[in-house]
Amino acid sequence: MTGLALATTAAPARRREKQPGRGWLLLPPVLVLLGFFGYPLVLVVLQSLESKTGEFGLSVWLDVVGSAEFRDAAWKTVALALGATAGCVVLGTFLALVIAFVPFPGARTLSRLVDTVLAFPSFLIALAFTFIYGSAGILGAGGFLYSPFGILLAEITFYTPFVMRPALAAFGQVSSAQMEVAASLGAKPGHVLRQVILPEALPSLASGACLTMLLAMNEFGIVLFLGAKDVTTLPMLVYGKGIVTFDFPQACVIAVVNVLFSLALYGTYRRLTKGGRRAAVDQA
Length: 284
What we know:
Elements: H1 2-17, H2 27-48, H3 59-65, H4 68-101, H5 107-116, H6 122-133, H7 142-145, H8 148-172, H9 176-184, H10 189-217, H11 221-226, H12 234-244, H13 248-283
Helix pairs in contact: 2-13, 3-13, 4-5, 4-8, 4-10, 6-8, 8-10, 9-10, 10-13, 12-13
């Protein structure tokens, strides 16, 4: 059986080796990506190096990075992203545990309802929160809504499914035999959760947390729609510099910094998901 499996795996590789010269097929999509994404990004980088007077250098970067406005926006962006990620991990893991291991009527329906949030644009969550917590809303807690805590609650509500989905998939792969053996040895449910279930789901939870932080760090709709006082994130600062004050060089500097943050988080996310897939293959 092992030899047959190896032969079956090696056959497509041999077929691919016998079909050289197909690399040119990748040229059209690569050109499209370079034209629609690479070229505008290069223009943004070049614009960030050119001041309003036409001087080319790092003067705009030094002015932006050294300003208190940029540091405050960067700090609030990271703080909101970390808070939203922590809240999503806690809430998403709890919901996934309940749906996966606590039998109750409507568990599948609850899972589908949470998934529907993924189909909504983020500003609809902010609109719903306005109807509930706004000054003229059901609860009338307007002061809470237009604060960093209101933005945090809205982001946690919107991004929780991004943690819950991979957690549910990971919990579904946990061997029931492991849990039964642990229970037969006298392990309490909390011990089984900490020693058996959560370690198996850790790579999926970590990748979901990285994806959530990546999305929360680039969130624009919720922050703009709620209009919280004294809450300016990097995307909002790009909007203010580029659209309101027409200071395109500074807007490009902030945009490049935001892109670098996003690429770093995306690289971490890819590394974690690759590690999770490798662990699943090794286990199989």
